[in-house]
Write the structure tokens for this entry.
Amino acid sequence: MSEHILEMAKSLVKVKDGKVEVLTEPLIHRCPLRRDLYGCEEETTETVENVLRMHIRDLGMYSPNRVLELDQKPVSFGASEIIMDAMTEGLVDAAVVVCEGIGTVIITRPEVLQAVGAHMTGLVSTEPINEIQSGLKQRSSILLDDQCTIDQVRGFEKAVESGFKKIVVTMTGHKALEAEILWEAGKVSGVKPIIFSVHNTGISDEEAQTLAEYCDVVWACASRAVREIVGNRSKLQIGISIPVFGITQMGKRMILNRALHFEDGLIIHREKLPCVPIEKQPEPLM
């Protein structure tokens, strides 16, 4: 018996004991990424519920049947795909991420990281699922605690205490201050975190400014502020519908490493950033 609260397409959703309840209407009306992944031409409470039911059916998400190893890469330049390839190349030895049934967790194996992160979205709170916890422990992962605490700063500190040196941390834009705290924690420990900001729709200009100052890679999602503020500070942009911005040299390296592993064709050319043709963006930008 467990309850999980998350956001999808800016709709608040509760998943309790495998049952999906969409609590609010999605504020995003159209998302090119969700259209390509899930066939959602127009976002409604039904599309949100159907996608979550598919995740539960196909991947066992939010249940004891959770898939914990995956080598598929559904998103061209998603956070888990970039981290997975970085782990494979030795650029990263640990990732501090969030998983339902666990909260903050430190993952060290690329196929486990991909299983946890490939379809994870906006987890707000979660309750323990023993099978997921024991399964990830068996796969060399380290839980922050057994109570499903979501605290990425403490997760980073625990990763440092565990002896890891090349640590990537994912965080959400609404907790932008965590990026500055992580940066300061890195100065104290001597281990500089690689900071990825995901789930950024609806963040303020001030939060976007903080992300631009302290993060390595930032996903634009459906955020106007990220496109305008982070995009203007970035050194590299990959994608135009849901841009991914590399702000630091390490951020660029992580994205370009993913490009090395990407099997389809890519065009790389010089451009003033951000490049965000309005007709290709999510609706509305928030």
About this structure: The chain has one domain: 68-280. The longest strand covers residues 3-8. The chain is about 35% helix and 20% strand.
